[in-house]
Amino acid sequence: MANTYTQCYIHLVFSPKNRAATIGKQWKNELEKYISAIITNNGHKLLAIGTMPDHIHIFIGYNVNQLIPNLVAEIKTSTNHWINTKKLTLQKFDWQRGYGAFSHSPSQIDGVVQYILSQEQHHQKQNFREEYLRILNKNGVDFDENYIFDFFE
Prior knowledge:
Blueprint: E1 8-14, H1 28-41, E2 45-52, E3 55-62, H2 68-85, E4 100-104, H3 109-117, H4 119-122, H5 128-138
Antiparallel strand pairs: 1-3, 1-4, 2-3
């Protein structure tokens, strides 16, 4: 539609099934490149991606012409197939159901990018469960702990 302008920044967070630490350090960069291509091919702009063994953060300039659930489904489905075809894990790989999606203002971009790129240092002090609950609370998201990611400590 002519004269329609949007500017949205979305921080996505999701985890392998059962929050298992199955994302290998030796292939996480390849995974990030693969996800980058999916994001770009769908008209979004990748701002940062940070992969840990048990979860991933993706920060994008969001193209409002695609629904967030559809983008996440495409990322998960495509990467499941890619990981399993390449036999990168001992068991069948699958992402856990659900995800977090958080919007940010332009003034927050640099902070969110730095946060995502410093995941390894961050997780020396805080585990993913604590981090995710903090993000939900910081963003004012009402949630029932029975329906967030399965966390096995």
